[in-house]
Amino acid sequence: xxxxxxxxxxxxxxxxxxxxxxxxxxxxxxxxxxxxxxxxxxxxxxxxxxxxxxxxxxxxxxxxxxxxxxxxxxxxxxxxxxxxxxxx
Length: 88
What we know:
Layout lengths: L16 H11 L4 H6 L2 H13 L6 H12 L2 H10 L6
Helix pairs in contact: 1-4
């Protein structure tokens, strides 16, 4: 009789760092990266800020994109996906 144990599959949660970072840099003024990470309220605020400041609010997206991409995968996951830190 063969002694086989079912293998435990370790499920690693999806890390959204690269996608969120690229979205923030390219179209961050529309808050797309916020919506992608599940921050609906912050995404709407980002859109309003961009409209009110005639586009200057879009610089926040660029800055956030750079911050996202410079963090380690684990740090990004802990901070933005588990900790739900909405801004910077």
